[in-house]
Amino acid sequence: MVWSLNGQAQNIKSVQTDIVIYGATSGGVIAAQAAALNGLQVLLADPVKHIGGMSSGGLGQTDIGNKFAITGLARDFYREVGKHYGKPEQWIFEPHVAEEIFKGIISKHKIDYRPNYRLEKVEIKKGKIRALHFTDKSEGSIVVIKAKMFIDCSYEGDLMARAGISYTVGRESNATYNETFNGVQLLDKHQFPDGVDPYKIKGNPESGLLYGIMPDALLPNGSADKKLQAYNFRLCLTNEPSNKIPVSKPENYDSSRYELLLRQLAVYTPDSLNWQLMHFAWMPNHKTDINNCGGFSTDMIGTNYNYPEATESEREQIIKDHIAYTKGLLYFIGHDPRMPQHLRNEMLQWGYPKDEYVTNENFTPQLYIRESRRMIGPYVMTQQNCQGKEIVQDGIGLAAYTMDSHNCQRIVVNGMVKNEGDVQVGGFPPYPVSYRSIIPHKNQCQNLLVPVCLSASHIAYGSIRMEPVFMVLGQAAATAAAKAIKTKKAVQEIDVRALQMALGFVN
């Protein structure tokens, strides 16, 4: 027992283990599983109670790219999902199914899982992390966890940042890594049609901009900035009457937030919600994974720029704002009399499923953090890697998805509202992800791996940032950590060829 600065007694606990994994994302759980299979004592800590990240948070339609690129324990996860549905493997699944599988992994491998652990401090001595200091939010106690190796599997890269590792936020210029799809990109996907007026009073700039439109000027194509691709919630809804909770008006509902949607519909009105308004991916048992689609949708563009460096309370507010926006959008579409009747009728068929997120009012607790911090490590993955123009020899897993960035800003261009930042460029085969991209520079830290907020340019990260790839890289990181412990070497010094063989990875 010690006394804090405010004069209150505070209990401090100490824990010793082999490896600490921070972030109970899908990549974090698989990393924990791999570490346990390598004979390590594992502690998995997370600042919240949700387990499985986006894979159990509504992203039920897996962004695969090429399923043959998904191997190892990641592939085993999708086979376990398949068992639930009576199939060899399954890539489309309900959130609760994924959550139960992740919980089963934790239980089977006797992983010490610590939810509600807020990271407070990182102890570093002679280039190595010695201990992490957490606040156990459930008990209010301080927990100091010592370990030999550490893996940051959080979407935010909080452990990496607290350890003093170099990182970046936002978009590099095209010139930085000799790319063509980085930086500012004004393209035509998920875009407003021409003719949508951005002003509160049509044609009158002095009346001010409608909600969600930023006053920023459009920079030249390829310019760098600190803006992030938009976040949203992947929505699990159902049209099964017996399992449906109707969408109700949320607190602090403000219909003016959606005025721009009406402007868009006045120029172009789709026949269905499932095009140019939302993307419906059909799930088992009359459910759907809904994603952003079109000019105005579930992405809350331009509201997340402060998230990577925000305090816990600031992040909570950003999340609350996204919840309010999303629930308000669903209510607006179904109930506002200005909406086209056929779209209102379609929306009213859907509601929140009674059997999902039962401890969170049937709404996903996981905001889709598409991009936050990105480490600057010994090797930076770029567009050249994605398109096969540069192939690394120290690959430890494959990525295969399209270079995919959601819009980063909503601005006025030539008197019309336009979204900027959406890039979708594919057509390339699977490519290897460098081991050097998941480790920091040796002079910064010798016992940390970062397989989620890895070293990649903005546009390359748009391809790599897929849940199955995070699982693959999580397994690679844990296997590398085990080898570093066994050989008493820094993570930068291990035999990468031996690591590739252990992973069954043939470059």
What do you see in this structure?
The protein is of the alpha+beta class and 507 residues long. 24% of the residues lie in helices and 22% in strands. It contains eleven helices and 26 strands. The chain has helices at residues 26-37, 72-84, 95-108, 158-162, 259-267, 312-335, 341-347, 383-386, 458-464, 467-487, 496-503, and strands at residues 2-3, 9-10, 12-16, 19-22, 42-45, 112-114, 117-125, 128-136, 141-146, 149-152, 167-168, 199-201, 204-209, 235-238, 244-246, 278-283, 287-292, 351-353, 374-375, 395-399, 403-405, 409-413, 416-420, 423-425, 431-434, 448-449. Strand 1 and strand 2 form a beta hairpin. Helix 1 (26-37) runs parallel beside helix 10 (467-487), helix 2 packs across helix 10 (467-487) and helix 6 (312-335) packs across helix 7 (341-347). The chain is globular. The relative contact order is 0.18. The model is unreliable at 1-7 (pLDDT under 50).
- Treating each run of at least 4 consecutive H or I residues as one helix, how many helices? 11
Total DSSP E strands: 26
Strand order of the biggest β-sheet: 6-5-4-10-26
Helix content: 10-25%
Give the mean pLDDT.
Answer: 96
> What would the principal axes of the Cα set say about the shape?
globular
N-to-C span: 53 Å
Indicate the low-confidence ranges by residue numbers: 1-7
Taking the sheet with the most strands, its summary is: 5 strands, parallel
Structural class, by secondary structure, is alpha+beta
Radius of gyration: 23 Å
How large is the share of residues in beta strands? 15-25%
Give short descriptive properties of this protein.
alpha+beta, 11 helices, 26 strands, about 20% strand, globular, disordered N terminus
